[in-house]
Amino acid sequence: MNQVCQHGYLIVTLTMNPAMDRTISVDRLAFDDRAYILSNKDSPGGRGINAACVIHAFGGKTLAILPAGGEHGPRFEQHMERCGFPVAIVPVRNDIRLNLTITDRHGLTIKLNEIGPRLDRDEIASVEGTVDAQLAGASWLMLCGSLPPGVPSEFYAQLITRARKRNVKTLLDTDGEALAQGIEAGPSVVTPNQQEAERLLNTVLLTRSQSIAAARRIQSLGAEEVVLSLASRGAIGVSGKAMWEAIPPRVDAISPIGAGDALAAAFAWAAEKKDDFAEALRWGVAAGTASATLPGMKFATLEQTRAIHDEVDLRRIED
Fold first, then answer.
1. Per-residue pLDDT tens for 167-202?
2. What pTM does this model have?
3. CATH of domain 11-317
């Protein structure tokens, strides 16, 4: 399947390390004791795919680009055909990942990810060519998730530079060296969670003031805007000299896995609608919060997100 964008899909997502996600629900997770499987489900996964699912569900226009192949490839493509939005799949020789998410009825979750297939130079070049072909019709490019073996850590940085030359805004949602080098290329917005920010800055974020300082420091590394996700505590947003704090209402979180993907997607969706930064931040936190209340790898609908949106406390932070 290779449904390439022809008519200006506005938000393009790139998932360099997609996976078949197997979500297993159990009665309870306890150390050194058995658990009974209640249900299991396979679905295509990866940060960019998840983001495209949210954008599509919200009524936005999106195109997902990803490499896929190997033993899991055909079944993966069959699942992608049912997503409802255009997909551009770059064929690769090695098998894509199989990731396991195990969650119980109390919200305790364990996520086990494979590293991913090694991509060779020709396959990486094919991905680059596919992205280049779609930039003409895009206003946003979301660079999402880890880089598989063989892909250089500066890969996202190079795509950010290309996108800027085409006047396409970029959202960077990754970790490690890919995050560090990508920020230096000046993405429009970067959306690290607390753990990713701690690794990036080689520090521990325990307090609100430390998180505020971290968001400003990440901006100083090169990002135009920063959304620092703090899970149930919401997010810190930085745009220019202005800073905001978006605090969600208290909810019963069932499965927080994927909430960060929903946050990034809803932020881009709102920004594409020309909402200002603070309002896009509010939508992002609302989507992440609403998705965390759902079981397994499910994402909140626009209606479910809107119900949370009005309860998100948006506060201006004064330096």
1. 999 999 999 999 999 999 999 999 999 999 999 999
2. 0.91
3. 3.40.1190.20
